[in-house]
Amino acid sequence: MNMRFVVVLFPLLMLVSGCGNPTNWANNNEGDLLQHVGRVQSEVDAYLDQNDGRLPIRSGGEQKPLYQKYVINFHELGSKPPSSGYEQGGHYLFVLVDEKDPTVKLFDVRVSQSVASVQMAVNRYLNDKRELPKNEEVSSGFYRVDFSKLNMEPVTVPSSYSGEIQLPLVMDKSGGIFVDYRMDVMQIIQQQKEKIQEGTDARELLLESSIYVPAHSPPTIFRDGDPVFVEKRD
User: Fold this and answer.
1) Strand runs labelled E in the chain
2) At 135, phi and psi to the nearest 5?
């Protein structure tokens, strides 16, 4: 592993954990969420068996970002969403990942709300100034957001994976806003202590480690031992 990224990582972690006014989305009902995911997975498995593998999802998902393509349609399942479901006033969409082995995960709608608030401010700035409100480049074609130019306090997103890290937002060359999950990825690598193959999708590690999807994440691969962003193609 390239230790250069690790050395930079921990000062950055401390910085973003203390910047602005971090939000706390502590999941005190983690046990309930695991039960909800398990219940929906059982219902999905039964549905797949009875419908020749057809996915019980909302239509029109092909045009949506990767982890919003396969939002579960509970009407198709013939059941009601769990209390944690967005449709029931909860914080999560129940989604499927891996078409070959459909697996139920949670998409935190609060991430969308945070990203949308910054995206609207960036769009206004772009329309007015005709330039990006950017700070330093953090990966090829991706930048930190200069919130001072937007007249906003820095916005971070609480990590669903660690419950402790405040994740920063990044902006691509067209002004699109994404969440930077690389600190979560590095924590998983350090715990596993395994060499990661070049070109591996770093987001797969997050999916394998928990019940959450990395909502609004840019495609991220391993290059020279570090997770780096690549231009969004989905």
Assistant:
1) 92-97, 103-108, 134-139, 142-145, 156-158, 166-172, 177-179, 220-223, 226-229
2) -105, -140
Whether the CB-CB separation of 102 and 96 falls below 8 Å is answered with yes
Q: What is the pTM of this model?
A: 0.87
Which backbone phi and psi does 219 adopt, to 5 degrees?
-50, 130
The angle subtended at Cα 69 by Cα 68 and Cα 72, nearest 5°, is 80
57-115 confidence digits (pLDDT tens)? 998 777 788 899 999 999 999 999 999 999 999 999 999 998 889 999 999 999 999 99
Half-sphere exposure of 17 (CA within 13 A, CB side): 13
Exposed e or buried b per residue across 120-144, where buried means at least 16 C-beta atoms within 10 angstroms of its C-beta: ebbeebeeeeeebbbeeebbebbbb
CA 113 to chain centre: 12
Query: Side chain identity at 38, as an amino acid letter?
Result: G
Residue type, 71: V
Two structure tokens written together for 63: 């045009």
Region class of 60: left (phi > 0), else alpha (psi between -120 and 50), else beta? left
**By the 8 A CB rule, do 196 and 232 touch?**
no
Per residue in 181-209, pLDDT (tens digit) is 999 999 998 888 777 888 899 999 999 99
